[in-house]
Amino acid sequence: MLERSLSIRRSPACTCGATLCAILALAVLGGCTVHPDGEKEERQAALSAEPKPQMEFPANPTREDLVRFALLNNAEVEQDYCQWRSAIEQVPIDGTQATNLTLSLGTVLDEGKFARDRTTVSAANDPMTDIVLPPKLSTAAQRSLENARAAGVRFRKAQFELRRKVLSAYDDYALSSELVRLSQRDILLLKTTADITAARSQAGMAGQQDLLKARNELDLQQNDLESMQSQLPIQRAMLNALLNRPATADIPLPDHLPAPTPLNISDQDLLDQAAKTNPELTAMADEIRAKHEEIQLAKLQYYPDFSVSAGTDLAGMAQSLLGSVTVPILRYEALHAAVEQAQANLNAAEATRQQTQNDLAAQLIDDISTLRDADRQIALLQNTILPRARQAVDLARSSYQAGNASFLDLLDSQRTLIDLERLIANLNATRDKRMVEIESITAQNLPE
Q1: Is the CB of residue 213 less than 8 Å from the CB of residue 414?
Q2: How far apart are CA 332 and CA 302, in angstroms?
Q3: Which strand (E) or helix (H) includes residue 125?
Q4: Distance separating alpha carbons of residues 402 and 203, to the nearest angstrom
Q5: What are the two backbone dihedrals, phi and then psi, of residue 100, each rounded to the nearest 5 degrees?
Q6: Angle at 227 between CA 223 and CA 229, to 5 degrees
């Protein structure tokens, strides 16, 4: 009898302990978070790539100095980085149960008094949100991780795009500076011609008409020079915008055009490299993997979710355990449509990536062809035509001084020389821009 009585006394404690264990299990189940493989590495990659603003601007920056400064200070790149970090934080959000632990305490008063056996404590998941199966969490978390990887690659793409913009803007700035120098040299040439014409006019060897033409040509060239100089503040402001600096901040004028970077790789090798390393194509591939996870997640919605609650009175005499299952039988058509929609989204993403790859290949062929044609023209002009044009100006000037050539002959030869020098400068700038675009498409030469 005593043993039975002890047994009865132990029973409430045991059952209460079992209930507490059930409550603890419910809390653990409701609060677990799935962390897919690769999440930690993606976080570490994001932390190591965080832009750290550089406040001191180099006194005499090179092209690569400008690129490095822009990569650390450009607001658009910072925006892409923040979107990457935001996408990473979506992984634990999707990998965590959406429900919460609900605790409740109730009692029944008898003439204003309460007793332990009439006071109950219970625990349950949020009645508005079911507990979902772990495979749904892991699939959702994996989908978010793939999207985060895509955001990381797009941050890398933004860096390459910024490099292209900075170097292209610098090329425009350097080209204008070079054209200003050429124009200043051409003005000196035209002043010499005007002086020769004035001397011949005073000697009666040239008419007033030649002198007027010479002065008009000189004034027109001076007007061209001032127009070119007016472009420098505009181009400097555009470059400063990319560097996140005040629009009027000083950037020293380049004293020469950038040296050409050789393209020592075949067209097919460039196309193959772009297909493997282009950031946009890589990001789209990550998004396609996320679409596959989206299909799997849509199929998992056919499986039911559930709710659990457990309670006990404080005396440990009575316990309750309740479970319920939400069967999505009435939502069959909607769930089936969601699977079909996810499949259609996957097909659209694959088609978009294929078209993007085709467009990039066409753009790359355009850049390569333009660059190689510019190389051909530059070699022809610099090695053959330009020396002849300079020789023609010297001969025309000598003949004009000797009275064996007209002023129009001299003027025409000078115009030809001026046009050739400007054409070579423009070809060099065009070539460098195309080279930078090739490097951007193939993801090359980004400063560390």
Answers
A1: no
A2: 8
A3: strand 119-125
A4: 12
A5: -125, 165
A6: 115
Tell me how far CA of residue 144 lies from CA of 34, 87, 100, 140, in angstroms.
12, 7, 22, 6
Domain boundaries, the chain: 35-102+134-307+334-441
Q: By CB neighbour count within 10 A (0-12 exposed, 13-18 middle, 19+ buried), where does 335 fall?
A: middle
What is the C-alpha to C-alpha distance for residues 357 and 50, in angstroms, rounded to an integer? 29
Neighbours of 54 (CB within 10 A): 14
What superfamily in CATH does domain 35-102+134-307+334-441 come from?
Outer membrane efflux proteins (OEP) (1.20.1600.10)
Give the model's pLDDT for residue 287.
97
Question: 399 and 405 in contact (C-beta within 8 Å)?
Answer: yes
CA atoms within 13 A on the CB side of 214: 25
Question: Does residue 45 contact residue 152 with C-beta atoms inside 8 Å?
Answer: yes
Q: What b-and-e string marks burial along 153-166, b requiring 16 or more CB atoms within 10 Å of the CB?
A: bbbbbbbbbbbbbb
- Summarize pLDDT for 324-375 with one digit per residue, the tens: 999 999 999 999 999 999 999 999 999 999 999 999 999 999 999 999 999 9
